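Journal club prep, shared notes

We agreed each person brings one worked example of a sequence with its structure written out as tokens. Mine is ATP-dependent DNA helicase RecG. I'm keeping it raw so we can talk through how to read the token line rather than staring at a rendered picture. Sequence first:
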Amino acid sequence: MSLTPTRKRSTQLLATPLETIRGVGSRVLEKLAKLGLHTVEDALYCLPFRYEDRRQLKKIAQLLPGTEQVFTGEITYAAETVTPRARKKIFEAMVSDGSGQVALKWFRYRGDWMKKQFAVGRKAVFIGEIKRFGALREVHHPDVEFLPEGADAETILRADPLSFGRILPVYPLTEGLPQKSLRKIMKEVVDCYASLAVSAIPDDIASRAQLLPLDEAFRQAHWPEADVSLAALEEGRDAARRTLVFDEFFFLELGLALKRRGVVLEEGIPFQVEHRYTRPLAKMLPFQLTAAQRRVLGEIKADLMAPHPMNRLVQGDVGCGKTIVALMAALIAIENDTQVAVVAPTEILAEQHYLQFHRWLEVLGLRCALLTGSQSGKEKREVLEAVRTGAIHLVVGTHALLQEGVEFRQLGLGIIDEQHRFGVRQRGVLKRKGISPHILVMTATPIPRTLSLTLYGDLALSVIDELPPGRTPVVTKVLTENYRERAYNFIKKEIGQGRQAYIVYPLVKESEKSDLLAASEGAAQLQAEVFPESKVGLLHGQMKPDEKEAVMEDFKKRRIDILVSTTVIEVGIDVPNATVMLVEHAERFGLAQLHQLRGRVGRGADQSHCLLIRSQRCSEDGMKRLQVMTETSDGFRIAEADLEIRGPGEFLGTRQAGLPDFRVANLLRDGRVLEDARREAFRLAAEEDFMTHPQYEEVRQVLMERWGNRLELASIG
Ligand code: ADP
Ligand code: MG
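Then the structure, token by token:
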């Protein structure tokens, strides 16, 4: 792939190291590196995180506390004093402009110099953050520009255009690099290099989306024009930032569109559907599929019968019944003489799926196996061998299934459950275990639309938006620790009526050991002191698989009344007779976790309760999360709230989820731009000659440069 000469030149120049910028010596270079700025391009993309309005001088009477302001006035008093309590020296001055007065304070200063400069009657321009102390307003350590005798403030403002008379950028700082110096460096970078930034987005798209030329966008994002709306700037809605965000999203979406198109064009195995196993299964099930389940199954079936591999995401809230849909899809693959792999994020969930699948497959005369990391070498070898020869029709497992050495006779369908726990790459690995197998991924974490567009933009989407009938919504209560006794009494009552309960302990520290300790000590104490008449069981992540399986089995068969656990039961566990979920230290859990935990109850027809116990010292965010839990049980609303409280980076764990790091875009704020960019990108990718026409050469090159690796795109240059 060779770049066009102009693109090559500008790419090279944008990679120019910052030391070539005027005013950047080795000391400053080090500071810049701390901010992650090495090249001219890094600097261009380091946009201000806020702006300062210095277009006009403010009257002192108008100075708003909490904001940084520019004002002018006359010094009416200046002296060194000693604070009464701390007995520290400070320097104090009063400034007045006739409309009002404001105090200036310095806590670190050179006394002689200050006394000489701050003479009563001198005029100056001051810049600083206004603080309020009771009725008084103060500025600590303001910037001061003294006015020469007889000069008026306006003249000074005009003489220093980098500091006054406009909207100024405010950049992230690092110690030893003042805002003023950084501003100067950035100004130099923008003046000399912005012109090299040329977007590869085709003109017709740029004009439809009302984009600025890229160089202009950089200039204005750093140094906004005087007539721009400050509110728009602050909310990131100005044309300049919108252009840069669009540019960033556009290429990501283009990559996703091509990936999707690549899959669509790929040849797959078209299945025949004769319902050899699905019909008998449907007859055996103790319930009828919901309309939503049937619709989604229909979408899956259509994909499976097409001559291209399926690549579909099934999204549905906890308890909506995704497993049975997956099983039906699996049976269609098996009916077509291919094998199925089901990957789950935890051993417990893999085991539970295995038990469920195994039960139905056995009745149908099919073979099912389990593969996890903690099985013995011998067990594993036997399973691997049976999978390789095709003796096994369906294998359920953890990450272990994705490892090298797992080979199939013919993998026809790969299913990933709780997809949000895996990354994009795992999907790729599973896919390569067969020859263009169909892929079905499932998630219960409802993902806000903007996030799912970026994370799963290359997947077709099915939504199960209906719960099986007869479920009563879970009653959720937040209780302080004082109410724990009452909560226990409530559990006793429920058990007395033949129901069961979960009690969940959080991770106390990062280490799993202490997590285990809290739960196992909790279990012992509950058994001995609180519930001596009931059977208390313990489940945690460090138990052997067969131990875990035994405990789960006991709980299912009601040989255990109360299951004390760590968060290992968070995903997928299904015991309809359990009606109480008590969560200790609920404020330490994330919203998604709490939602999943609550999803363990309310699975039968009986009224279920979720009791969230919080400690007295609970952070503000913690309170917000618990509040959300009591307000809604709608997974989508919970996810939106979660995204808002935590921000997208942490929402799913950037690395793990394969969520790209954006340079300017913000998923919370820029959802609309993302959708616009996506629409245009998908339209472009659908052009017949997109891959070949010289007109799109540059777009293709930029795409490969930016996303080729991360999206695992085959070379298209
Ligand atoms: P999830 O979507 O969270 O994975 P599951 O597949 O575990 O949910 O299903 C939750 C429970 O609902 C299971 O006990 C399952 O047997 C039951 N279920 C699934 N579909 C239906 C249905 N159509 N009618 C009644 N119960 C159903
Ligand atoms: Mg599930």
